[in-house]
Write a structure and sequence with these properties.
There is one protein chain. By secondary structure, the chain is α/β, with parallel strands linked by helices. It is built from 9 helices and 12 strands. The protein has helices at about 15-25, 45-55, 75-80, 100-110, 130-140, 195-200, 215-225, 235-250, 255-270, and strands spanning about 1-10, 30-35, 55-60, 75, 85-90, 95-100, 120-125, 145-150, 160-165, 175-180, 205-210, 230. The chain has a 6-stranded mixed β-sheet with strand order 2-1-3-5-6-4, sandwiched between helices. A 6-stranded parallel β-sheet has the order 9-8-7-10-11-12, sandwiched between helices. The relative contact order is 0.14.
Length: about 270
Amino acid sequence: MEFYGLLGEKLDHSISPEIHEKIFSLLKIRAAYKKFEVKKEDLQKFVDGLKVLGIKGANVTIPYKQTIIPYLDGLSEEAKKLNAINTILLKDGKLYGYNTDYFGFGTILQCNHVEVENKVCMVLGYGGAAKAVVQYLLDHGVKKLYIVSRRTCKDVYDDLRVQFMTYDEIATVKGDILINTTSVGMYPSVDKSPVTEAVIINFTTLIDIIYNPRITKFLEIGRRLDKKICGGMEMLVGQAIKAEEIWQEREISHGILAKVMDDFNENFSKMSD
């Protein structure tokens, strides 16, 4: 029996265990996946515990995608580039960090047939997940990329396509794809949207990486305005599949992803009650 889990602060409504247990079942792997709610001051104890107990891998969520990095023994190339991780592998007594959010975001686009090449995109938020989204967009040929945060950002991209803005500056910006990477609208605060209708109306496609609720207030507004809308379930499942590929050291077919997506699209409403 192999053991895995999810590191975070508040994990009551995470469905990661159900997703990974479904993958284990489809791949016929004897394994268990648990939630690890850990306080920031106990991160060293958590890391020591992974090694002592031989827990083969863990996912990492808010707020530890960056704060866990100093406790690890090494990082993958994409994790170094993004300075954020969401997957840990225990191998030969050492812990290695990876970022599968990049691949998860790509899954949203592929499943919803959204093209980003030569498009004008706006990313709301600039946390760990946002950096993966930004890198994916730049790597896949966006024409212009606005990154929006509450405070003026001092980060510098060596790329003329990138422009940082605050929320006060975006009302008149028009584009193709508007992406929410913030936690605004996540369960239980489901009546909130990161931006108003006045901003949403200026884009043709809306993507929210939140998966609970399946349709956020942000996406609800977009649907009412007849925009194409994409939720975060595909990202959650896509990054989970990539994490399993790292842990199991094997490729996992698209058919497995499709089966997991079908299962969760059918049962999600029951699970989030």
